[in-house]
């Protein structure tokens, strides 16, 4: 099947949206077939039926049914959703709680845990664990959220500080704080090589050659800003501090790949041979600090999460080579 020409891609912490233009090869074909063929490695036909039922697929700004046949140059937008809250299952999964009150829950997410249910990861997520821990939360968010309480995300293999709202009022205020860039987010990671110190200000969008990946986009990307500073290096590896001004998917990982100093262990944007040689699978990246204004008390708060063993081990290795 020929490639669908992309017009733009946008993504935030609450949903994913993709917009593309219908080409000649895909014109006058049922839209559900076009979508299934194009995304067959990512989503099932049943999943797209769910999106059609929830009016998440539009053509030229209007919701359409699955049998709709688009014309050349029609503008198709897809809003990707996760499970409905009524389908989410509370699970007794241990949580490492940094802070909790009646409005917010701050956690140290372990590496390897997915934040919210999605195709391929319907259970065992942070959301499943939160729903078990917070009594009444599922009911409170049933009419509002596809991802109850979630206001931002961390990649599966990124560990560290993540905050969730326990009620709708707190959720609304936290979402506003993140969207207005009033939340300070600091990360620690191990890079291959030495990125030094600086700022990457390059837009990020879906990789046209691989729909499962992101890339620095020449056109159609969203603004992405990453500050970085090497704290220690032995020349081959570096312990790096990151501060992100935006929150794009895989932002730090993509920006470091763009600088040719990818994160060690990254199975998508990194050096696969070196990862295998060192026995590291999953990027060594940790959300170490998060600062914001409390949604109710309006007091400034800062939360930190201790460096995990894998990153600490590499940091010691770097220090030993410098001594």
Automatic annotation (TrEMBL):
Q: Which residues form the active site?
A: 155
The alphabetized UniProt keywords are:
Isomerase, RNA-binding
Q: Which reaction does it catalyse?
A: a uridine in RNA = a pseudouridine in RNA
Could you say which EC number(s) this protein's record lists? 5.4.99.-
Its BP terms in the Gene Ontology are: enzyme-directed rRNA pseudouridine synthesis
Entry keyword Lyase: no
For this protein, the record's Pfam families field holds: PseudoU_synth_2 (PF00849)
Keyword rRNA processing appears in the UniProt entry:
no
Q: Which InterPro entries match?
A: PsdUridine_synth_cat_dom_sf, PsdUridine_synth_RluA-like_CS, PsdUridine_synth_RluC/D, PsdUridine_synth_RsuA/RluA, RluA_PseudoU_synthase, S4_RNA-bd_sf
Q: Which GO terms describe its molecular function?
A: catalytic activity, acting on RNA; pseudouridine synthase activity; RNA binding
Query: Which PROSITE patterns does the annotation name?
Result: PSI_RLU, S4
Family from the record: Belongs to the pseudouridine synthase RluA family.
Specify the protein name. Pseudouridine synthase
């Amino acid at each position: 099947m020929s490639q669908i020409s992309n017009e733009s891609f946008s993504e935030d912490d609450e949903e994913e949206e993709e917009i593309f233009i219908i080409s000649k090869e895909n014109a006058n074909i049922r839209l559900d077939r076009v979508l299934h063929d194009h995304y067959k490695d990512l989503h099932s036909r049943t999943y797209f039926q769910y999106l059609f039922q929830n009016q998440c697929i539009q053509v030229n700004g209007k919701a359409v049914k699955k049998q709709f046949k688009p014309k050349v140059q029609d503008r198709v937008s897809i809003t990707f959703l996760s499970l409905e809250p009524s389908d989410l299952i509370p699970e007794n999964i241990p949580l490492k709680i940094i802070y909790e009150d009646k409005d917010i829950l701050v956690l140290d997410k372990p590496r390897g845990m997915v934040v919210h249910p999605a195709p391929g990861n319907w259970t065992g997520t942070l959301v499943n664990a939160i729903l078990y821990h917070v009594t009444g939360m599922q009911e409170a968010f049933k009419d509002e959220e596809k991802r109850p309480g979630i206001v931002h995300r961390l990649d599966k293999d990124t560990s560290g500080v993540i905050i969730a709202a326990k009620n709708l009022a707190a959720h609304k205020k936290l979402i506003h704080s993140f969207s207005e860039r009033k939340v300070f987010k600091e990360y620690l990671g191990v890079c291959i090589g030495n990125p030094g110190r600086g700022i990457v200000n390059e837009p990020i969008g879906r990789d046209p050659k691989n729909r499962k990946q992101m890339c620095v986009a020449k056109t159609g990307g969203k603004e992405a800003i990453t500050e970085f500073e090497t704290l220690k290096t032995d020349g081959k590896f570096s312990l790096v501090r990151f501060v992100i001004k935006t929150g794009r998917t895989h932002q730090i990982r993509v920006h470091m790949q763009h600088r040719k100093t990818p994160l060690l262990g990254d199975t998508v944007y990194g050096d696969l041979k070196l990862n295998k040689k060192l026995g590291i699978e999953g990027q060594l990246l940790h959300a170490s600090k998060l600062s914001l204004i409390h949604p109710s008390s309006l007091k400034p708060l800062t939360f930190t999460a201790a460096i995990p063993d894998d990153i600490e081990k590499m940091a010691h290795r770097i220090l030993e080579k410098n001594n």
